[in-house]
Amino acid sequence: VVRLRHRIADELRAALIARGDPGLLADWAYSPWGEDDLAVWRALAGAAPAERRAAMLERVRGLDAEQGG
């Protein structure tokens, strides 16, 4: 069950990133599953409207520093 749950979450995450919908990406990024997900935050920063992009990029920089990037 745990492996299946992880596989489904990974597939959903990949689909969200591929679609690039800022609303869906934000839903994931601001959830417990996505709060530390650098790839999702990068995708969100790229898809977000210009007026929100700076905050997203700040989160990307913070996660990158935390995760040793």
Please give a structural write-up.
- The chain is globular.
- It is built from four helices and no strands.
- The relative contact order is 0.13.
- It has one domain.
- The chain has 69 residues and is mostly helical.
User: How many individual domains?
Assistant: 1
Compute the gyration radius: what is it? 12 Å
DSSP E strands, number = 0
Would you list the SSEs in sequence order as H and E?
Answer: HHHH
**Mean of the pLDDT scores?**
95
Structural class from helices and strands? mainly alpha
* Gross morphology: globular
How many DSSP H or I helices?
A: 4
Largest sheet: none
- The low-pLDDT segments are none
Range of helix content: over 70%
Distance between the termini: 32 Å
Strand content: under 5%
List keywords for this structure.
69 residues; mainly alpha; 4 helices; globular
Please write out the topology.
Elements: H1 2-19, H2 22-29, H3 38-47, H4 50-66
Helix pairs in contact: 2-3, 3-4
Give a concise summary.
With 69 residues, the protein is an all-alpha fold. The protein has helices at residues 2-19, 22-29, 38-47, 50-66.
